[in-house]
Amino acid sequence: MDFLRKMVPGGVERYLEGIEFPIEKRELTERLQRNGVPGPVVDQVRRRLPEGRFSGPQGVLKRLRR
Length: 66
Hints:
It is a single chain. The chain is mainly α. It has one domain (3-65). 58% of the residues lie in helices and 6% in strands. The chain is built from five helices and two strands; from the N terminus they run H-H-E-H-H-E-H. The protein has helices at 2-7, 13-16, 25-34, 39-48, 57-64, and strands at 23-24, 53-54.
C-alpha cells in the first residue's frame, strides 16, 4: 500500500467512487483505466488484488492494504 499512498496522495478511495459493485477484478481494472486512473496505479491494483468478485469498495481497499 505504500506505493499506492505515494502515487495517490488523495487516496485510492477516490478512484473507486462511482464504480458499481459487486464487480470482478478484471472489470474493476478496466473501469479504473476508462476513468483515467494513472497506469502505475492500475498496475498495482492488478498485481495486488486476487482474482474474484468484490462486493464493495471497502473489500477492495482491505485487500490492497495487505
